[in-house]
Amino acid sequence: MTIGEVERTRAPLRRDAQERHDRLLAAARREFAAQGVAASLERIARDAGVAIGTLYRHFPTRLDLLMAALEPRLREFTDGSEKAMEIDDPWEGFVSYLENLFRVQAGDRGFNDFLSRRFPGSPETERIHDQMCRQIEEVLTRAQEAGEARPDITQADIVNLIWSNGRMMDATSTTAPTAWRRPLYLMLDAYRAERAHPIPEPPMTDKQLYDAMVHLSTAG
User: Which Pfam families does this entry report, sorted A to Z (predicted)?
Assistant: First the structure.
């Protein structure tokens, strides 16, 4: 069951409780989008006009609040990724998938942070990340089998690109909010099969990639 499905199937709240719940979600979406996953829960509660205890009654953990706040962004990403995967041309589908992901990533620092982290204790976040990895693998493999993408690129290379561009997005979000498109297209040009040259460093393994994402989620 997805976060959105949980929200839709939970027991109805009293009107006043529902209003507090909605204010908390609105404040959380603003704060996570601006500050990332480490956003102050106290400030979210204050902006929503409730006590911190009320926040925890509605959302027992930071991750519960984060995932509820990210639900519209996840839906936006999912809609775009499904359209990209329906494109007949393998290279155009690959490009469209990444551009959609980067566009959503650039618009929300919380989503940006979420992409680079793993939360092993949360089956829902693991499912979302696993689905993204499968999609990346699918669009990349299609482009490789069509002879459009160089054959030595792996899913880990794409995830590393997402990480590195995410850092740039943090720095340029107010001064040049669409600057992320340039490094993306420079890298896409490098991913072309006809640009391929030997690379001295092997790609990260799936375990190395997973462990790095867990480290980011637990680092101070």
Answer: TetR_C_43, TetR_N
> CB count, 10 Å around CB of 93?
21
The CATH number of the domain holding residue 42 is 1.10.10.60
| Range of the structural domain that residue 118 is part of | 71-219
| Per-residue pLDDT, 1 | 44
CA angle, corner 47, sides to 46 and 51, nearest 5?
A: 30
Identify the sign of the CA torsion 132, 134, 135, 141.
positive
Q: How far apart are CA 160 and CA 85, in angstroms?
A: 21
Instruction: Indicate whether 45 and 135 sit together in one domain.
Output: no
Ranges of residues in the chain with a pLDDT under 50 are 1-3, 6
Six-digit token string for 200: 């001295």
> Which pTM value belongs to this model?
0.83
Three-state DSSP state, 36:
coil
